[in-house]
Amino acid sequence: MSLSRPTRVVLTALLLAFLSLVGWRVYERYFKPVEAVAKEPVAVSVVVVSKRDLTRYVKVVGSLQPALSSNLALKAAGRVASVPAEIGKAVRKGEALVVLDKSDLLTQVKAAEAAFDLTAANLARIELSAPVMEKAQAESAVAQARAQVEAATKNEGRMSSLYQSGAVPLVQLEAAQTQLKMALAQLELALQNLGVVNSGTAQQVIAAAAAQKKQAEAGLQLAHSQLAAATLTAPFDGVVSLVNVNPGEIVSPGVPVIGLVESGRIYADFMVSEKQVGTLAAGQQLDVSVPTAGKTATAVVAGISPSVDARSRMYRLRVELRDPGASLKPGMMAEARLLEDSRPGCIAVPEECVVGGSVDPSVFVASNGIAEKRPVKLGISDGRYIEVLSGVHDGDSIVQKGQTYLKHGAKIKVVDGGSR
Hints:
The protein is of the alpha+beta class. It has helices at residues 5-31, 103-129, 135-164, 170-199, 202-229, 274-277, and strands at residues 42-48, 50-66, 69-73, 78-82, 90-91, 96-100, 231-233, 238-243, 250-251, 256-262, 266-272, 285-290, 295-304, 315-321, 333-350, 362-367, 370-375, 377-381, 385-390, 397-401, 412-417. The protein folds into 4 domains: 42-54 and 343-417, conserved putative lor/sdh protein from methanococcus maripaludis s2 fold (Beta Barrel); 58-66 and 263-342, Efflux pump adaptor protein, beta barrel domain (Elongation Factor Tu (Ef-tu), domain 3); 72-99 and 231-261, CATH 2.40.50.100; 103-220, no CATH class. It contains 6 helices and 21 strands. Helix 2 runs parallel beside helix 4 (170-199). Mean pLDDT is 83; it is low at 34-38.
C-alpha cells in the first residue's frame, strides 16, 4: 500500500524531530563540556607516623588431654564376680575395679600351702632322722607317693577332657596339673629317700628334701600370684572412663575391660608452625582458654616435639594447665595465643589508614593541604597497628579518617590529629 505525498512528508518530519531529540540528549550527557566547579577541601583527620614495637600473636586450636590414660586388662581368665568400677567414679591407686570368682584359686592356694608345709616338715624330719631311716618306712613312702601320682594323673586326665568340652574353667585344669606336679615331686623325693636308705647316704636325701621344699615354695608363690591376678586394681589415682565388662561374664587375659584417666593433671596439645615453635621454650607460661567451659587457665610448656609431622609440617606442643578445676575435662577444645613474630622500633600506622586492601595497599599523605596517595609495602600487624616497610617515613602525616573517597591530589583540610 503506497502513502500519499503529504503523508510521507509528515512522517519524515516526525522522524527528523525524533532523531534530533535523541542526538541532543546524547550530546548533553556525553559530549557537552562541564563547567568547572570549585570543590571545597575534604575534611580529614590525620596521624603522624612514628616508630613502635609490634608483636604478632596467632590463635592455635587443640584439645585437652589427661596426663595418664590407660585401658586396663586382667592377667587371668575367669568368671567375673563383681565390678566395683563405674563410669565417672573417682578411684584411688590400688582400689579394686574388677574381681573374678576366686573359689578355685583359693583352693589352689590352700593346696600349695599344704604341699609347702609337708615338704618343710619332711625336710626337718629328714635332717634329724636321715642317718637312721628305716628301709620299710622309705618303701612305704614310695608306695604312697606312687598311689598319689596315679590318682593325680587320673584326675588331670579327667579335668583335661572336661576343659576341652567346656564343662570346667581353665583354673580347675591348672589346679589338677599342679596337684599332679606335686605328686610327681613327692614320688621323686620318696624314691630318693629310698635310694639313700639303701646306699646309706643321708646328705643326698637331705638335699632332695630341700629341693622339694624350694619347689613347693615356688608353687605357693605362683598360687598367690594367680589369686592376686583375679582382682584388677587401679594403677594410679584417676576417674573411670570406660567399663566394658559385667558380673557373670567370662573374661580372657589381655582384653581391655576398664578405662582409667588420671585425675588432677590435664594437658593441652596443639600443632604449631616452625615460626611459632621458635618462640617457645620449656617452662614458658601462656594462657589457654576453653570456650565450652567459659574458662581460661594458666599453662606451662611441658614439651615440644623434636621432629616435624611429615604430613602437616607442624610440631606438637604440649602444655600443662595449672589449677584446671573440675569443669575442664579431657577431650574439650582448647585455644591459645602464641607469639609468632615481633618487630621492635618499626614504622607503623593504624590499620584503618591503609586503603586498597592486600592487592594494592596505599595511604594518603597530607602535604600542604593536598592528599598524596602513596603505595606502601606492609609487614606484620598486631590487630591495631601495621608495619610499613616502604612508602612512608617517620614524621609523615597520613590521613586516618575521611580517606575513603579521596583521590590523589585532592584538596584536604585537617580538622583533627597531627600529633604523635
